[in-house]
Amino acid sequence: MPPTAPIAISCGEPAGVGPEVAAKAWAALGRDMPMLWIGDPRHLPEGTSFEAITDPAEAAAVCTRALPVLARDFGPPLRPGHPNPAHAPGVVAAIAEAVALVQSGACSALCTAPIHKAALIDGADFAYPGHTEFLAALAGDVPVVMMLASTVLRVVPATIHIPLSAVPTALTEQLLSETITITHAALRRDFGLSDPRIAVAGLNPHAGEDGKMGHEDRDLIAPLVERFAAEGMTIFGPMSADTMFHPAARARYDAAICMYHDQALIPIKTVDFAGGVNVTLGLPFIRTSPDHGTAFDIAGQGIADPTSMMAALDMASGMVAARAGS
């Protein structure tokens, strides 16, 4: 059942494919799913059917015939594929406004289009590594976790954008414990799973072979998994990562906790490249995003695939329903 309050879509980097995939997602879903777009309507693809609104409450009625837009003036004209730092303040403000609308209840969830960090730094002194950290700050510096999810696999990297050489040091008991706890709570609250099954990957080949290929699996990961299991959580590991992601293995768990970025993202991008969704767990509001970047190389050509944006909106709608029913 779609949410009654609209899902807010922040525009993301105007020179990327964000405006295009938002317009295409509305064309596919808008008649059944209330949504609104926050940004400069001049950045939408030529021919997009849109209607400026002043109140999110107008979105549901408008959405059946046009993309509802909370129109904001970003200043200079757009050149697809070429980010303009002058647009950065508008991009940041659109995200913050969308968060405020969701927190107030005027919108039901937030779906963010991809941003371009360099342009935000140059044009708005953006001080965050990305969306996730900025949203956590807007929510009051709450601890958050990144999940990549699709209909066939959910993965959570415990460490994200750090060198592989830094992963063993970064993997602390506190970090892993927090990651598992947030993931388990989100699977219950946002995905409607009363008893989520969590698989935990090992760090080293063959999950360390009992210390013969590294000690982290035996000394850190295994005791932590045993502790959570003793407390009643359905959790197992550490598992050898090379045997975790074939279909029969995936059927045994609802989410996989992985130790580093590529250990999590390679499997999901292999099994469902177009349908993956980036979800921020731990926020007091719902946030999803397509699992792709700005794609400057194809921006403005009308060929961007909206599948991931559509999946992000669908997942946000499902999460709204799960929270309403919990």
From TrEMBL:
<keyword id="KW-0963">Cytoplasm</keyword>
<keyword id="KW-0521">NADP</keyword>
<dbReference type="GO" id="GO:0008270">
    <property type="term" value="F:zinc ion binding"/>
</dbReference>
<protein>
    <recommendedName>
        <fullName>4-hydroxythreonine-4-phosphate dehydrogenase</fullName>
        <ecNumber>1.1.1.262</ecNumber>
    </recommendedName>
</protein>
<dbReference type="GO" id="GO:0051287">
    <property type="term" value="F:NAD binding"/>
</dbReference>
<feature type="binding site">
    <location>
        <position position="161"/>
    </location>
    <ligand>
        <name>a divalent metal cation</name>
    </ligand>
</feature>
<dbReference type="GO" id="GO:0050570">
    <property type="term" value="F:4-hydroxythreonine-4-phosphate dehydrogenase activity"/>
</dbReference>
<comment type="function">
    <text>Catalyzes the NAD(P)-dependent oxidation of 4-(phosphooxy)-L-threonine (HTP) into 2-amino-3-oxo-4-(phosphooxy)butyric acid which spontaneously decarboxylates to form 3-amino-2-oxopropyl phosphate (AHAP).</text>
</comment>
<keyword id="KW-0664">Pyridoxine biosynthesis</keyword>
<dbReference type="InterPro" id="IPR037510">
    <property type="entry name" value="PdxA"/>
</dbReference>
<comment type="pathway">
    <text>Cofactor biosynthesis; pyridoxine 5'-phosphate biosynthesis; pyridoxine 5'-phosphate from D-erythrose 4-phosphate: step 4/5.</text>
</comment>
<dbReference type="GO" id="GO:0000287">
    <property type="term" value="F:magnesium ion binding"/>
</dbReference>
<keyword id="KW-0520">NAD</keyword>
<feature type="binding site">
    <location>
        <position position="206"/>
    </location>
    <ligand>
        <name>a divalent metal cation</name>
    </ligand>
</feature>
<feature type="binding site">
    <location>
        <position position="287"/>
    </location>
    <ligand>
        <name>substrate</name>
    </ligand>
</feature>
<dbReference type="GO" id="GO:0050897">
    <property type="term" value="F:cobalt ion binding"/>
</dbReference>
<feature type="binding site">
    <location>
        <position position="278"/>
    </location>
    <ligand>
        <name>substrate</name>
    </ligand>
</feature>
<feature type="binding site">
    <location>
        <position position="269"/>
    </location>
    <ligand>
        <name>substrate</name>
    </ligand>
</feature>
<dbReference type="Pfam" id="PF04166">
    <property type="entry name" value="PdxA"/>
</dbReference>
<dbReference type="GO" id="GO:0005737">
    <property type="term" value="C:cytoplasm"/>
</dbReference>
<keyword id="KW-0460">Magnesium</keyword>
<dbReference type="GO" id="GO:0008615">
    <property type="term" value="P:pyridoxine biosynthetic process"/>
</dbReference>
<dbReference type="InterPro" id="IPR005255">
    <property type="entry name" value="PdxA_fam"/>
</dbReference>
<feature type="binding site">
    <location>
        <position position="132"/>
    </location>
    <ligand>
        <name>substrate</name>
    </ligand>
</feature>
<dbReference type="GO" id="GO:0042823">
    <property type="term" value="P:pyridoxal phosphate biosynthetic process"/>
</dbReference>
<comment type="similarity">
    <text>Belongs to the PdxA family.</text>
</comment>
<keyword id="KW-0862">Zinc</keyword>
<keyword id="KW-0560">Oxidoreductase</keyword>
<keyword id="KW-0479">Metal-binding</keyword>
<feature type="binding site">
    <location>
        <position position="261"/>
    </location>
    <ligand>
        <name>a divalent metal cation</name>
    </ligand>
</feature>
<comment type="subunit">
    <text>Homodimer.</text>
</comment>
<keyword id="KW-0170">Cobalt</keyword>
<feature type="binding site">
    <location>
        <position position="131"/>
    </location>
    <ligand>
        <name>substrate</name>
    </ligand>
</feature>
